[in-house]
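User: Some background: our group keeps a shared notebook of sequences we're curious about, and every so often someone picks one and asks for a predicted structure to add to the entry. Today it's my turn. The entry only has the sequence so far, pasted here. Could you supply the structure so I can complete it?
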Amino acid sequence: MDSNRYNAAWWSKDNDTGWEKVKEAFRRDWKQTKHDFGGSSPDLNQDVPDTVKQASGKEHIPPPGQPNFEDYEPALRYGYGARQYYGKQYPAWDSKLEQTLQKDWSSPVDWTRYRKAVRQGYEFTPKP
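Assistant: Of course. Here's the predicted structure to add to the notebook entry:
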């Protein structure tokens, strides 16, 4: 998935730089979220037979119906960048900000699918 297709007109190289700094924190948060929603542990619970099935194309990576970080990274990135651009104007998420971000959304992918991830990116505060 090309993350650049989610960039709004206001996106800059500074947003890319900032995103790279927090990307791993989002990845860890994603793993923890999966754990919090019933996963047996923060890891992938992958064993050798799973790897063999996936490598041979007999099993999808991840299993069908399981969202993965790579699917949602562009939306998280978009929300994070939007905070850099709109943060002073909209210090908190509200319906007006959401309308603005939806209008800026340049992806052909349905906004409603990624709306929550955009909000999570907007509201994310990296921990020191």
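Suggested note for the entry: The CA atoms of residues 58 and 85 lie 44 Å apart. The two ends are 30 Å apart (CA to CA).
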